[in-house]
Design a protein that fits this description.
Elements (H helix, E strand, L loop, with lengths): L13 H9 L9 H4 L5 E5 L1 H5 L8 E5 L4 E5 L15
Parallel strand pairs: 1-3
Antiparallel strand pairs: 2-3
Length: about 90
């Protein structure tokens, strides 16, 4: 990042200044993503995790893009227990 006194920095380079400012999330200027919390859907625990008797702390959360939620299961499981999606 060229500093203000860097000879390679072009004075008045507004495009660069806007780009650089967009990389930082200032508390006074919250980003749109942090302005409204996303809805989190809990999709439950897989039957395999229940059969294995895994405690909640022994399961991993997996994201289902189709259901827009998180399901919990054994580490190597890949299939959403709600919709069967295997693509994450």
């Amino acid at each position: 990042m060229p500093s203000q006194d860097d000879p390679e920095r072009i004075e008045g380079d507004e495009e660069f200044d806007k780009f650089w400012a967009s990389l930082w999330n200032h508390p006074a200027e919250p980003s749109e993503a942090s302005a409204s919390p996303a809805q989190l859907n809990e999709l439950g625990v897989t039957s395999l995790a229940r059969q294995l008797g895994l405690a909640e702390t022994q399961t991993n959360g997996h994201w289902c893009s189709r259901c827009q939620g998180i399901w919990y299961g054994y580490t190597l499981e890949v299939e959403c227990p709600v919709c069967g999606n295997r693509q994450g």
